Amino acid sequence: MTNIIDFQNASQHRACRSAVVLDQAHDPQIAIRLTDWHADRLAKRERFEPTTETGKNLRDRQRRDYAWRRAKTAVDYWRAKMEFEDAWINAARDGIVRAPKPGEISTRDANVSAWRQALVDQMLTPAPTLNDVEWKRRTFAAGQHQHIGADPAAIKRAIERDAAWLQEHPVRRSRPVDPAAVAERKQADCDIRGRIKEVAASLHLSEDAIRPALSLRNRMIAGFIREHGISADWLLTGIGHVFQADRVNH
After folding, report:
1. Which of 16, 23, 174, 250 has the most CB atoms in a 10 Å sphere around its CB?
2. Beta carbons within 8 Å of 220's beta carbon, 6+ residues apart
3. Is residue 149 left, alpha or beta, with left meaning phi > 0 and alpha meaning psi from -120 to 50?
4. Which spans in 150-206 are helix H?
5. Residue 244 confidence (pLDDT)
6. Model confidence over 204-247: pLDDT tens digits?
7. Which helix (H) or strand (E) holds 250?
8. CA dist., res. 40 & res. 73, Å (int)
9. CA–CA dist 209, 206 (Å, integer)
10. Is the pLDDT of residue 138 over 60?
């Protein structure tokens, strides 16, 4: 595993797993099976180490994506738990549902603290995309980490590492744009449309009849050529006869 990516250690994984199992009090085995399924999936992926640079970059992204999704799931869980238990208390107060029994729910302060800690954990987790880095920056600027005494310098360093890694390992490298080639392509398209209109005028075709061909989609151009017996060479290049040989002879 690359040194750049600082994933959660085994003790953190065990702690997270235990928390999930305890919260699934109705059927703890469900949480165990789900956790084991993800662990098995990751183990199969890690069985073979890629040998090419492209393969290594993909593997690093997969590791980042896996860790990021787990961290985001924790944030979503604690936020949902906090909102659900608030709704439960409010509904019980209005007599809609029974009141929660002692120990069935946590205090709001405990839920908020757990949610904020999950946010900090996610900000410290390697981000797989630039959008995720932007999320980190927005969340950090919101200041939720300050309420639990998290180290702001550590979060800043994590964001800087993410930005540097993603810059060095882009998903795809953009090719330089050749303005001359773009202009040439636009002119060629304009010329083809002009020849379509020229044929339309000679065959007394309406604008509706030639509108599909003017889109310059391959299928539409092929249909226009076939339907009116036009020479493909002439339509695309302007060279040769306007109509196909059988049309001319006919």
Report:
1. 16
2. 212, 213
3. left
4. 152-168, 179-203
5. 81
6. 999 888 999 999 998 898 999 999 899 988 998 888 888 886 55
7. none
8. 18
9. 5
10. yes
Query: Where residue 54 falls among pLDDT bands split at 50, 70, 90?
Result: confident
Query: How far, in Å, CA of 141 to CA of 9, rounded?
Result: 27
* 55, 88 contact by CB (below 8 A): no
Dump the DSSP string for 28-65. Answer: HHHHHHHHHHHHHHHHHHTTS---SHHHHHHHHHHHHH
The pLDDT assigned to 171 comes to 64
Q: For the CA atoms of the chain, what is the radius of gyration?
A: 31
Structure tokens at 5: 């990516």
Q: How far apart are CA 34 and CA 16, in angstroms?
A: 13
Return the closest-CA partner of residue 147 out of 124, 125, 123, 114. Answer: 114
